[in-house]
């Protein structure tokens, strides 16, 4: 056949389609697994039968699976994803060099095997991208690589399959093809007309013995069959990829008419082409590649998917809120456990200045369960100091603080689970009359249930006596407890010791430091030898209110949360040891063991008058009126009765704990010393 009777084949480029869940999955993998890694990774795509006239290459969340899903309703193609870390890298990358480098690498990897696992491996693509996680925008560009300078030809007139096959042979071919596809799910196969056999392409093509490929086959009887999504004389782009594969692997086909069946929507519309594959001396490494996809405007340029317009606002908020935390794991804290922070349940006793500050910092750390306990209402003096309240909240007598704080947290982060409880905490030194007994018992039961159902308890109330009952209940139920208290220009932030279920390890000396196990650390009341009483009695207004320099609460609440997170990241959690110096010859403080977020102190005493911090550790006091064995055993025996008795007379706490005996002994020693002086 003369050259005038032949024509150069033309191919229709495919179109890409990215499902939204592909970007969700990419974001999840990039943020939590790949991080700064930008090396190429294998992905999969599929071409469905939904629109036979279009070659639509689709990717979704399943594209990241190690093995593509097989189905008779679609065939797969294989791809390489290259996601850059910065937009500058994305723009500056030489796209011609990129397509050659990735395509050469893919072909080398393919040819490293003796034969194809599946003929779908011939069809491959490149997805080059950059993900802007702050704006939720994804820049991307697909390429469907083909050999640029290899030209294929065929007769000008296309021949229908019907002109080559009789009706009986066509029916037999159809049945065999359907059976083969159900079993093998191969988009390319070989039909031998002489014996009616259907073969896999891998049965005839070896990558290690290329000179032998098709050498023992009568090409007059053989048809290479391939899916073709075109409807006119232009062919599907993937046939061009198939021809390139054959040009590189089958020198026996060079400059010969090879028969191809282009399988279209029906066998009646399918065509047979006698395609000539030229003799090419191009090696794999020297073959230039082309195939970048044009965008929606017909320009060879990237596309952009703006997911901020289609993502659920709540999901969008959740991903944005945790972005800062996730980025910490990229370089600074790769072992940071964000899950433990998010699944921990936090109970904030007090929704005032400290409570608001703690809650906001917990949100920033990714906390998902935050509850408030407070019986107060928002007053006009609150919003300027307490960051969860507005002026409107203080009008008409003021809204309940706990419920308002919880609602405000949900406005800030819709994903958080937050509830406010209006509970008046029973306090020693505040006697309970008969008319108040039912209400007090109800408050006691509710408070204990809340403490049992939460993991971390914050003591953020504004009086000493209001901290006694939560301290005792938290010690009894072995809960992590964080205390924050304010003075005018000073503050105290501390963690309470938690009873160990595995025994009671002793404190030991380590290079001039005393190491105190977490189970032996003291609570807020361990330094006291007097039971708490009514701190509001006979006090003027400035003594009844927490009068403090405005920023002190912000500092204390921030330290309380950072102390909590440090404990949660430590293997021993609230059992982490604390250290204090017992010798002038002690080693450097830098020698104290650290968690992934640094040293974990027992208490932090700050004074902003001198801008000074004092890191101390105190061992548990055996006669503490809140956490001693005597007090916890008395509560275990009498429950409500013990608490009501302590509310009516705080003196019984001193008696049960043994402080009364201790003070009597001290008094006797003083008297005895005095008699000697006489």
Put the structure in a nutshell.
The chain has 678 residues and is of the alpha/beta class. Helices cover 30% and strands 22% of the residues.
CATH class of the largest domain: Alpha Beta
CATH fold type of the largest domain: Rossmann fold
Determine the mean pLDDT: 88
CATH structural architecture of the largest domain: 3-Layer(aba) Sandwich
Backbone shape: elongated
What is the domain total for the residues?
Answer: 3
User: How much strand content do the residues show?
Assistant: 15-25%
CATH superfamily caption of the largest domain: NAD(P)-binding Rossmann-like Domain
| Straight-line distance between termini | 138 Å
Indicate the radius of gyration in whole angstroms. Answer: 38 Å
Pfam family, one: ATG7_N
InterPro entries: Atg7, Atg7_N, Atg7_N_1, Atg7_N_2, ThiF/MoeB/HesA, ThiF_NAD_FAD-bd, Ubiquitin-activating_enz
GO biological process, one term: autophagosome assembly
GO cellular component, one term: phagophore assembly site
What report would you give on this structure?
E1-like activating enzyme involved in the 2 ubiquitin-like systems required for autophagy. It is found in: Cytoplasm; Preautophagosomal structure. With 678 residues, this protein is of the alpha/beta class. It folds into three domains: 7-146, Ubiquitin-like modifier-activating enzyme ATG7 N-terminal domain (Cytidine Deaminase, domain 2, 3-Layer(aba) Sandwich); 153-292, Ubiquitin-like modifier-activating enzyme ATG7 C-terminal domain (Cytidine Deaminase, domain 2); 316-622, Rossmann fold, CATH 3.40.50. 30% of the residues lie in helices and 22% in strands. It has 18 helices and 29 strands. The strands form seven sheets. Strands 21-20-19-22-23-24-28-29 form an eight-stranded mixed sheet, sandwiched between helices. Strands 4, 6, 7, 8, 17 and 18 form a six-stranded mixed sheet that branches. A six-stranded mixed sheet has the order 10-16-15-13-11-12, with helices on one face. α9 crosses α14 (552-569) and α15 (629-638) packs across α16. Mean pLDDT is 88; it is low at 540-544.
């Amino acid at each position: 056949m003369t050259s005038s009777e032949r024509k150069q084949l033309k191919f229709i480029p495919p179109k890409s389609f990215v499902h939204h869940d592909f970007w969700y999955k990419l974001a999840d993998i990039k943020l939590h697994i790949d991080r700064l890694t930008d090396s190429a990774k294998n992905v999969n795509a599929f071409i469905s039968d939904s629109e036979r006239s279009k070659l639509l290459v689709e990717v979704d969340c399943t594209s990241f699976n190690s093995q593509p899903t097989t189905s008779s309703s679609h065939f797969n193609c294989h791809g390489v994803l290259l996601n850059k870390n910065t937009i500058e890298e994305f723009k500056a990358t030489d796209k011609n060099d990129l397509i050659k480098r990735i395509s050469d690498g893919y072909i080398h990897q393919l040819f490293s095997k003796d034969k194809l696992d599946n003929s779908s491996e011939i069809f491959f693509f490149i997805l080059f991208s950059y993900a802007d996680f702050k704006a939720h925008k994804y820049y991307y560009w697909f390429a469907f690589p083909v050999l640029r300078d290899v030209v294929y030809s065929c007769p000008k007139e296309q021949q229908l399959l019907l002109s080559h096959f009789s009706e009986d042979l066509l029916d037999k071919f159809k049945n065999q093809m359907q059976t083969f596809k159900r079993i093998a799910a191969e988009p390319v196969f070989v039909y031998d007309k002489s014996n009616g056999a259907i073969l896999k392409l891998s049965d005839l093509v070896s990558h290690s013995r290329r000179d032998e490929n098709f050498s023992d086959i009568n090409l007059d009887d053989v048809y290479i069959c391939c899916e073709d999504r075109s409807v006119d004389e232009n062919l599907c782009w993937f046939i061009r990829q198939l021809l390139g594969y054959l040009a590189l692997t089958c020198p026996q086909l060079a400059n010969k008419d090879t028969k191809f069946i282009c399988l279209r929507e029906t066998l009646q519309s399918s065509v047979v082409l006698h395609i000539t594959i030229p003799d090419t001396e191009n090696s794999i490494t020297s073959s230039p590649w082309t195939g970048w996809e044009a965008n929606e405007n017909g320009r060879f340029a990237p596309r952009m998917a703006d997911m901020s317009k289609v993502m659920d606002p709540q999901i969008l908020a959740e991903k944005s809120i945790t972005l800062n935390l996730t980025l910490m794991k990229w370089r600074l804290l790769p072992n940071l456990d964000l899950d433990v922070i998010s699944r921990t349940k936090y109970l904030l006793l007090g929704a005032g200045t400290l409570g608001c500050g703690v809650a906001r910092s917990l949100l920033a750390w990714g906390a998902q369960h935050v509850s408030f306990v407070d019986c107060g209402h928002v007053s006009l003096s609150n919003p300027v100091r307490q960051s969860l309240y507005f002026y409107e909240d203080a009008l008409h007598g003021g809204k309940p603080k706990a419920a308002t704080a919880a609602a405000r947290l949900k406005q800030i982060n819709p994903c958080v689970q937050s509830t406010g409880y209006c509970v008046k905490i029973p306090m020693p030194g505040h006697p309970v009359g008969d008319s108040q007994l039912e209400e007090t018992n109800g408050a006691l039961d509710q408070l204990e249930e809340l403490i049992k159902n939460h993991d971390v308890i914050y003591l953020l109330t504004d009086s000493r006596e209001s901290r006694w009952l939560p301290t005792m209940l938290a010690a009894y139920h072995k809960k992590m407890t964080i205390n924050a208290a304010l003075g005018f220009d000073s503050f105290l932030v501390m963690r309470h010791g938690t009873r160990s279920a595995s025994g009671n390890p002793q404190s030991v000396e380590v290079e001039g430091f005393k190491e105190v196990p977490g189970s032996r650390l003291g609570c807020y009341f361990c330094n006291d030898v007097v039971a708490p009483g009514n701190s509001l009695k006979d006090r003027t207004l400035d003594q009844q209110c927490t009068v403090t320099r405005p920023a002190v609460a912000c500092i204390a609440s921030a330290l309380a949360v950072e102390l909590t997170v440090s404990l949660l990241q430590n293997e021993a959690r609230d059992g982490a040891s604390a250290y204090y110096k017992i010798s002038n010859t002690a080693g450097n403080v830098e020698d104290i063991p650290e968690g992934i977020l640094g040293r974990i102190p027992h208490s932090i005493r700050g004074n902003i008058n001198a801008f000074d911090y004092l890191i101390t550790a105190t061992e548990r006091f055996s006669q503490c009126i809140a956490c001693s064995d005597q007090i916890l055993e008395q509560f275990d025996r009498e429950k409500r009765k013990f608490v009501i008795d302590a509310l009516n007379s705080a003196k019984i706490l001193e008696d049960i704990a043994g402080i009364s005996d201790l003070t009597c002994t001290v008094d006797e020693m003083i008297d005895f010393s005095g008699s000697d002086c006489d």
